[in-house]
Structure to design on (329 residues):
């Protein structure tokens, strides 16, 4: 039995635009997906997922057959996406090791589809646990590359390397096209996360931005401007200027909203954070619902979010210095 885990993430700046080659900066956070892989005597592969806000979700693989037995309380497209991610991770494992069977159990304290990188963390941890269980040790970079291929397929070829690279490497990362690098000595930022209890469909949201970008030159300009915000933000990271970072996050949220990927509850949480005195706040990840991230060293934003209609949960997040790691072998 092998247990591996990988962290979720927040986008400090740059989601969506990163799909089109603009830079993005992401920070791994101390919420992880944990995957247990156990070799089996037969050639079947059984996947069980717990705590993915999907009750009793279970997928059985054998001879290429996928059988979903479900007691499910989240929208169906999300289940299809979740199955796609798990299925893709298994395919990657099968490219690396002989196809003996194993059971994979997934536990996660990252809400599914909420912008905190749950799918990337599950895929990264699953590839690591299953390959190690079969006696193969991949580097975090190799795992990131394989996990990216999974996201690319599930999102119909419209995915960046950002989420999977951040989850595999931990700490903070900068991604621009194929150029992925860790940020040495990232600042410890006072992240506060607000979660509205819902989820967005990444594939649909990414396609929506692409359509806007193709239809309107000013939407394409908006995407490029997000890239400019990220480049400006990199200087603020180096100087650890949290106020400047907050201002840039506010700007970034406004542009994401213009691109149609915010929602009423995300906007309400962003404004609650700003009114409470946060340096800045924005949605994180694909949007459409899910999480916002704010910068506030005081308890005021968390308190305000607790009383914000539409906010279901709020918590402080710390930078996670570990990427994918083996928990037990
Ligand atoms: C989703 O977490 C982030 C997006 O930029 C998509 C991607 O980078 O693949 C919206």
């Amino acid at each position: 039995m092998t247990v591996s885990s990988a962290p979720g993430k927040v986008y400090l700046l740059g989601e969506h635009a990163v799909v089109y080659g603009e830079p993005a900066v992401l920070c791994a956070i101390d919420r992880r997906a944990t995957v247990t892989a156990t070799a089996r005597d037969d050639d079947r592969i059984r996947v069980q997922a717990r705590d993915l806000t999907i009750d009793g979700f279970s997928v059985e693989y054998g001879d290429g057959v996928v059988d979903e037995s479900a007691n499910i309380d989240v929208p169906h497209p999300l289940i299809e996406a979740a199955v796609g991610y798990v299925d893709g991770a298994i395919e990657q494992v099968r490219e690396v090791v002989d196809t003996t069977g194993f059971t994979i159990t997934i536990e996660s304290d990252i809400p599914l589809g909420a912008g905190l990188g749950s799918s990337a963390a599950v895929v990264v941890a699953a590839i690591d646990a299953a390959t190690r269980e079969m006696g193969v040790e991949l580097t975090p970079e190799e795992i990131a590359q394989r996990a990216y291929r999974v996201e690319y397929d599930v999102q119909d070829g419209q995915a960046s390397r950002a989420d999977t690279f951040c989850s595999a490497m931990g700490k903070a990362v900068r991604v621009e096209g194929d150029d992925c690098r860790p940020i040495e000595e990232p600042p410890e930022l006072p992240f506060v996360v607000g979660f509205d209890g819902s989820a967005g469909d990444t594939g649909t949201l990414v396609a929506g931005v692409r359509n806007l970008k193709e239809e309107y030159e000013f939407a394409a300009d908006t995407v490029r401007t997000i890239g400019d915000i990220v480049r400006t933000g990199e200087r603020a990271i180096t100087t650890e200027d949290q106020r400047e970072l907050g201002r840039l996050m506010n700007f970034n949220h406004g542009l994401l909203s213009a691109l149609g990927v915010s929602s009423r509850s995300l906007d309400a949480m962003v404004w609650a954070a700003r009114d409470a005195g946060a340096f800045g706040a924005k949605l994180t990840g694909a949007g459409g619902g899910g999480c916002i991230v704010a910068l506030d060293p005081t308890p005021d934003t968390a308190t305000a979010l607790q009383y914000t209609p539409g906010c279901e949960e709020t918590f402080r997040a710390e930078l996670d210095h570990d990427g994918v790691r083996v928990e037990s072998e």
Notes: The domain at 2-185 is CATH 3.30.230.10 (Ribosomal Protein S5; domain 2). The first helix runs from residue 76 to 96. The pocket of (R)-mevalonate is lined by residues 15-16, 18-19, 159-160, 162-163, 202, 206, 285-286 (CB under 6 Å). Residues 53-73 have pLDDT under 50 and may be disordered.
